[in-house]
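Repro:
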Amino acid sequence: MSLVAYEDSDSETEAEKTEAPDASGRQTNQLSSPVSCVQHFAPGSTESAHEMHPGWSRVCEDPPERYAWNSNTDLAPPHCQRVYSGHAAVSVAYRNYEQASSSSTNSGNGFSQKRAHNDSTPTLKGIRPYIPKRLRQENSSKPEKEESDQRGSSECDVKVTGPREQALRKTSELIKPYLGSKYKVTEVPKSLIFYMSKHSGPVNEIQWCPVLEQSHLLLSASMDRTVKVWDAVDTGCCLKTFSCHSCAVRAARWSSCGRRILSGGFDSMLHLTDVETGKQIFSSKTEFRISALKFHPTESNVFICGGFSPEVKAWDLRTSKVLRVYKAAVQQTLDILFLPEGREFLTSTDAVSRDSADRTIVAWDFQSAAKISNQIFHERYTCPSLSLHPRESVFVAQTNGNYLALFSAQRPYRINKKKRYEGHKVEGFAVGCEFSPDGTLLVTGSSDGKVFFYNYHTSRIIRTLSAHKEACVSATFHPVLPSLLATCDWAGEIKIWQ
């Protein structure tokens, strides 16, 4: 005798229908533009961010795991959709980011647990045969698996905003007067030009395009699994969004030609993406989560990556193979810095002993993979970031002791005990530091959201800028325009100052 469920007892089935999420796990809600132009960098310019008519277009397909994270991130949907710009900037706090991540992980993990069963067999009106819950789950997962197999692709999902080719290839009218002249003296920026908050997670790294003619482009990598390219000089708009990673993107770097972007994240994946087409020129999976990437200064096809592993690897993009492996008795590589000419490089690690730091900063020979020195920094603090002086043979190390230490870039890499840049706070964040292009200023973020400007020669604080509410993790000067500064924070905000 078969069990049947009558019309007045199918509340459970109806409840399952309402709880069933969309099988594709995609959102089609229209979003407002998160760019708020506070002040135009060019007063005579007639084009603004709100006059642009941004749109979305899909360049290529994406693997199923990239659509699994279904939250309010800036991932491109699998179909074309137009989004119109608004006038309000969106600010996302990190606690909201954690809630969105946890909710999206539970709701968009690829397979729905409850789904109504569509039975093709004819039944009497008002009577449906009873189907076990396990069978309903198996049947509901089959179409999703078939769809994911068809979507498999090695290319990156790209969201394009505005006229992409014209904005990417152009040379800003504000940059042209400075291309043929020598860089002027850097001054401390005071006014806010653009406020950009299109990232839905903390921004880990920002970098200006190294090609001076295209240095209006700003690259950003975020914990929301995306890499974005911005026009940070003329309009403050997001030009492209690359969603190649399935986990947080910890590091991203421009190639020397400015046409490609190398990114690595907590999904252990390395991607070299063409900026214009969105195609992945190189893609490889490593054995560890990636936290640091650097291109070789003279060999443009060679880069070094490190992360949650005792190994640091050098890759050749022409062969897609590992050139050398640098092994150290550490657990994580925090940052990588090439010294002049690229014959030697430094790595900062998390190795700290009780009373002194052993292997905190390690110097390597690039060609032989030999360890030159691991007794450079002798204090009990880790160094989350390193920066090289543009004109002198010195470098600085950001320390968790809330100060910047100055070292010689020549063997035996001795510390300068007479200079110490202190006043800002690190407190466990990966706070970056950088010299100005003329080498007169040293800028660093702070865990309290401020930006500190130090005089390189006197090590005194020149100015403090209250830039963000959350921890400011990066601050970088423009390579051409004097006194133009980009900052980012742990809440997903990017700001341009002049």
